[in-house]
Design a protein that fits this description.
This protein is mainly alpha-helical. Helix content is about 60%, strand content about 10%. The protein has one domain: yeast vps74-n-term truncation variant fold. The protein contains 11 helices and 6 strands.
Amino acid sequence: MLTFAEELLLLGHDENGSNFHDLPDMLFDAALAGAVLMDLAIRNRIDTDLERLVILDATPTGEELLDHAFAILARHPEIAATADALDLLRKEGSVIEDKAIARLLERGILRREASRILWVFETRRYPLIDGKELQDVKRRIAGLLFSDTIPDPRDIVIIGLAQACGLLERVFTPHELEHCRARIEQIARFDLIGQATGAMLQELSAALTTMFVHYG
């Protein structure tokens, strides 16, 4: 089963360009942090609400990505609030992303292509091998947004996180999103970590806007 971080990366994959959509690093890093926390919660390693985060079980999950993040949390026992845990893991965003990409490569979902620009600067592309997993995620989300089906916990999480970091705008047209806006908000409210992540993303987005205005 894919981790939420892997599913987010797939949703952010630009199938034509064989790479990932360009989202602001600070925003996507926060979304990846939320994805990791939700995986740990679903695996009963942590318990969390909007105010509090508690480690329940220190047993490794067997997923290197999740165990890396879990080890960071364990090294900071003073972290007791969900928002603080998100902020701590957000700073590991590039590491989380690299590990998620590595896992997608191991699973045979992506392949890596390296080339050089002007024979000097190396660049990497990550084409999908067959695109099945990406289409499965998109189909699952669409099936929920355009129906009144009761979502399961995994569906709630991926929709909440994708909404929080703006990935749904990369998957659906503006007309489609407008049609199911109320449904998206209804599902996102079920996810407490998604709400905390969304609040952090709003703060980061406002900070980025201020920065662009100041330095632009």
